[in-house]
Amino acid sequence: MRPILLAVVILAVLGSTSSQAQPAPPAAIDSTARDERLPASEEAAKAALETSPRHGELVDIAWSKAHPPLRTWIVYPERKDKAGVVMIIHEIFGLSDWIRGVADQLAREGFIAVAPDLISGLGPGGGGTDSVASRDDVVKLVRGLTPEETLLRLNAVRAHATRLPAANGKVATVGFCWGGARSFAYAAASPPPEAVVVYYGTSPDSAAILGVKAPVLGLYGADDARVNATIEPARAALDKLGRRYETHVYEGAGHGFLRGQTLREGANLKATQEAWPRTIAFLREHLEIKSLRESVEMKGKKGK
User: Fold this and answer.
1) By the 8 A CB rule, do 128 and 117 touch?
2) What is the CATH number of domain 40-303?
3) Tens of pLDDT, residues 215-231
């Protein structure tokens, strides 16, 4: 009887030890977790918008008697003085929750953020992004926009935004992917904006680049050969013109890294953590009113 009892005790001890030695299953990674100092990733954008304390609104901006108004998302910062305007030029996916989230983040940093739906009026029933059944159909509509029509639409949004009572008269553009290329092209607008930020967008061609006058900040993923092949030709041309073109290429990051922060084993998030503060510093450098004289000058421009 004693040997049997001893065997039972030994088995019980071994079973307990084996159970304690089992490692705990790895915790699931929460793709919606975010650093509030950065724009939300695509997965977290909707939740970030729903909890934002800032005032955002959709407005219709008239721009042509022959076309419906431009549906535009505007977010205001919480500040006492007037603010610079940042126009956000969306990706090929249109005015998405993610783009609206980027606008909210820019407002958090003290800017009036203005994100137009550039395919307003082109969707079913004269609608925009939210009227289109699928993302593929949105892509087709965005690709159908000519550079000339895009410029007209951006100019209309700019005219509206810079005349807002809370605006200081200065304006910059920030664009992503397709919108990054359009943002770079807008550096040649007349008059030029105060600053232009390009996220992984192609540079203008050899003729259009000669019209660039605004300072440009370019932010790129290293694993994006199609886009990055256009960086050095643009740099060579802008250096000859004496224009500012500051570029940063982030190792391991891919195209669309700011939206896809949870991808590429942390490289996209690391790129975001470095690129976003640079974006804010660059915008502040060019959009803040630095003197009483400049304030008077900007008021004069708004009144024209």
Assistant:
1) yes
2) 3.40.50.1820
3) 999 999 999 999 999 99
